[in-house]
Amino acid sequence: MKNFHLPLPEQTYTLLRAEADRAQVPATTLARQAIDAWLRDQARRARHDAISSYAAETAGTALDLDRELESAAVDHLLKSERKSK
User: Fold this and answer.
1) How much is the pTM?
2) Are 70 and 59 in contact (CB under 8 A)?
3) 37-55 tens-digit pLDDT
4) Which pairs with CB-CB distance under 8 Å and at least 24 residues apart come from 11-20?
5) Dmax of the chain from CA atoms?
């Protein structure tokens, strides 16, 4: 575990402290959880952007999904969705 000094604006500090008191957990725990959640979200967005970019670049090329495979995948997903309901 590493320590990190993070100056906060007064309002952010006050809100963090109030939420920590309400949840009865240390403010550092809440801050750590918020930072971890933000980092996971950033990684998810970066992965989504990379996949979207790759799909756009390869659309219509030999690297694109063939129509039969894509159709089979859509059919599978639709059947799976119906079974789970």
Assistant:
1) 0.69
2) no
3) 999 999 999 999 999 999 9
4) none
5) 58
CB 8 within 8 A of CB 16: yes
Whether the per-residue pLDDT at 6 is higher than 90: the answer is yes
Asked if the model's pLDDT at residue 65 lies above 90, the reply is no
| Residue recorded with tokens 């959640």 | 37
Which tokens sit at 19? 């939420």
CA distance 55 to 49: 10
* Distance in angstroms (rounded) separating the CA atoms of residues 38 and 7: 18
- pLDDT tier, 85 (very low <50, low <70, confident <90, very high otherwise): low
DSSP string, the chain: ---------HHHHHHHHHHHHHHTS-HHHHHHHHHHHHHHHHHHHHHHHHHHHHHHHHTTSTTSPPHHHHHHHHHHHHHHHHHH-
